[in-house]
Amino acid sequence: MEKKYSAIIFDLDGTLIDSMPYHVKAFQKLYSVRHIKVNLNEARSLMGLPASEIIAHLNKKYHVKDNALKMRDERRKYFFEFIKNKDITIKGVKKTIKELRKEYKTAIVTGSSRKSYLGSTDKEFQKLFDCVVCVDDVKNAKPAPDELLLAAKKLKASPTKCLMIGDSRFDQMAGKNAGMNSIGVLTGYTSARKLKLAGAKEVIGSVNDLNKVI
Question: pTM here?
Answer without folding.
Answer: 0.94
